[in-house]
Specification:
Layout lengths: L5 E2 L14 H12 L16 H16 L3 E4 L5 E5 L9 E6 L12 H17 L1 E2 L4 E6 L12 H6 L5 H6 L8 H7 L15 E7 L4 H5 L3 E7 L1 E10 L16 H18 L5 E10 L10 E10 L2 H22 L2 E10 L2 E2 L2 H14 L3 E6 L5 H4 L5 E6 L15 H19 L4
The structure holds (2S)-amino(hydroxy)ethanoic acid and manganese (II) ion (2 copies).
Length: 427
C-alpha cells in the first residue's frame, strides 16, 4: 500500500495518519497574496518583476525556516530540498509557480508551491524522515503573460527549449527574460535539467467548473490537453471611411471578425472539449474611426485533449485564414509560436494520487486538465501526476478567483500521502 516511510523512532508514519496544518497553509497563501495585491482581491505579480522577486524571496525565506536548502538554475527555477535517508535517490518533488496573470487570482500556482512547503512543514513537525529527498520547486514564468510562451522555466528544464532562446524572449517593452532574471537576482548557476527528479506531483486549483459541479474535493489528473499559440497578422489597406464603397474595401477588422467567427465555429465543431480563444492585440491606424483599418494583430490559443482533434483545429485555423484572406482581399500571416501536445501522466503516480484520496476518504474523480501546467514539461523527464481542487464557480485568471480552505486542505493531504508513497524507501 503506502511506502514504508519510517519516522525517527522507526514507526511507519502512515499509521499516524499524518495530516497537514490547514490553517498554516491558508495563512501562507494569504501572506503571499499580499504581495502585488489588486483592489479587486487578486494579484498582479508578473514574472521577473520586483513583485515576483518579493514573492520568491518570501518563499525562499520560508524554505530556510523549514530547514531546506535552495538552489537556483539559469532559468530562475528554485529547488528547495529536504534531505532523505538516501541522498542519492531521485528526489520526490512538487511545486508550481508564483507568477500570476495581469489580473490573476491568489491561488493559481501559489497553492501548488505553498502546498509543497506545507508537506515539508508537516513532516518536520512529525519528525518523519523519508527514504528519498523531497524538493519543492518554484518554476519561472509559468503564465506566459509577460514573456511567451508559457511554462518556459519548466520547458527549458525539460529540454523543450534552449537556454539562449528562453533568455532572449522579450516583453512588451523589449526587456529580455535573461536580463530580468539577472536584474532580480534569480539568474542561478545551475544548468537547467542538470538536476534529476525521481517523481513529481503538482497540486493546483482546477480553474474550471467540473469538481465543483460534481461535488468532489479532489481531482485525480490523468493528463493535460494540448495547446497551441499563434500570432496572426492581417494586412488590408487604409482608406477613407466615407467615399470608399463597401465592395472596394480591404478592411482588416472585417477580415478579423470573419476569421474569429470561423475559429470559434471550429472549436464548437470539435465537441465539448474544443477550445479557441482569440484576443485583438493591435488595430491600426489607432485612434481614427474614419480611416478603414489596414492592420489587425491577433493572438490565438487553441486546445484539445485528443491528438487528432488537436491537429484538426490547427488545420482548420490555417484553412480559415487562407479562405478569409481570399474572400476579404487581405493578407493573413499565421505564425505558430508554441505547441504543447496533449500529455498523459504516469500511471504509477496517478494511482498514488488516487490511492491517497481513497485512503483519506476524500471524494475524487479522474479528469484531464484544461489548463497547461509546468507538470506538462516535467512529465517529459520524471514520472508525474497532478492533484486538482475546486475553485469557486470554476473561475480563474480573474481577480475574484477563490477556493475553499477545506478543499485546499484535502488536496494538500493527498499531495502529502502521494509524495510519501513515492518517497518511502521500502525495507
Ligand atoms: O495557459 C495556461 O493554461 C496556463 O495558465 N499557463
Ligand atoms: Mn497555474
Ligand atoms: Mn494560470
Amino acid at each position: 500500500m503506502m511506502g514504508a516511510v519510517r519516522n525517527r523512532n522507526g514507526k511507519p508514519a502512515m499509521s499516524q495518519g499524518l495530516q497537514i496544518d490547514a490553517d498554516r497553509l491558508w495563512r501562507s497563501i494569504m501572506e503571499m497574496a499580499r504581495i502585488a495585491a489588486t483592489e479587486k482581491g487578486g494579484n498582479r505579480r508578473l514574472a521577473l518583476t520586483d513583485d515576483d522577486r518579493e514573492g520568491r524571496d518570501l518563499f525562499v525565506s520560508w524554505c530556510g525556516d523549514a530547514g531546506m536548502t535552495c538552489t537556483v538554475d539559469k532559468m530562475g527555477n528554485i529547488f528547495a530540498r529536504r534531505p532523505g535517508r538516501d541522498p542519492d535517490a531521485g528526489p520526490v518533488s512538487t511545486g508550481s509557480h508564483l507568477d500570476t496573470q495581469p489580473t490573476g487570482g491568489k491561488f493559481d500556482g501559489v497553492y501548488g508551491v505553498l502546498a509543497g512547503l506545507e508537506v515539508v512543514r508537516t513532516l518536520n513537525d512529525a519528525g518523519v524522515e523519508t527514504g528519498a529527498p523531497l524538493e519543492v520547486i518554484c518554476w519561472t514564468n509559468e503564465e506566459g503573460a509577460r514573456f511567451s510562451p508559457a511554462m518556459i522555466g519548466s520547458a527549458v528544464f525539460a529540454g523543450a527549449f534552449g537556454l539562449d532562446y528562453a533568455h532572449g524572449r522579450t516583453d512588451a517593452e523589449g526587456k529580455t527574460l535573461g536580463g530580468e532574471l539577472a536584474r532580480i537576482g534569480y539568474l542561478g548557476p545551475e544548468e537547467p535539467g542538470g538536476h534529476a527528479l525521481g517523481h513529481h506531483f503538482e497540486a493546483h486549483i482546477e480553474q474550471g467548473p467540473i469538481l465543483e459541479a460534481e461535488g468532489k474535493p479532489v481531482g485525480v489528473v490523468t493528463g493535460v490537453q494540448g495547446v497551441r499559440w499563434y500570432d496572426i497578422g492581417i494586412r488590408g489597406m487604409e482608406a477613407h471611411a466615407g467615399p470608399t464603397p463597401m465592395e472596394a474595401r480591404k478592411d482588416a477588422v472585417v477580415a478579423a471578425a470573419e476569421l474569429i467567427r470561423r475559429l470559434d465555429d471550429n472549436a464548437l465543431d470539435e465537441g465539448p472539449h474544443g477550445r479557441t480563444t482569440v484576443k485583438i492585440a493591435r488595430c491600426a491606424p489607432e485612434g481614427s474611426r474614419n480611416t478603414i483599418a489596414g492592420e489587425v494583430a491577433l493572438t490565438v490559443d487553441i486546445r484539445h485533449p485528443d491528438r487528432d482533434a488537436f491537429d484538426r483545429l490547427d488545420a482548420g485555423l490555417r484553412r480559415a485564414a487562407a479562405e478569409t484572406a481570399e474572400l476579404r482581399k487581405v493578407g493573413i500571416g499565421v505564425d505558430e509560436i508554441w505547441v504543447s501536445p496533449p500529455v498523459v501522466f504516469d500511471a504509477g503516480c496517478v494511482d498514488a494520487v488516487r490511492r491517497a484520496a481513497a485512503l483519506l476518504g476524500y471524494g475524487h474523480m479522474d479528469m484531464v486538465s484544461g489548463a497547461g501546467h509546468d507538470s506538462v514539461y516535467v512529465s517529459r523527464v520524471a514520472p508525474t501526476a497532478m492533484i486538482f481542487v475546486p475553485c469557486e464557480g470554476g473561475v480563474s485568471h480573474n481577480e475574484i478567483e477563490n477556493a475553499a480552505r477545506d478543499d485546499l486542505e484535502a488536496g494538500c493531504n493527498v499531495l502529502l500521502h502521494a509524495m510519501l508513497d513515492r518517497a518511502g524507501a521500502p525495507g
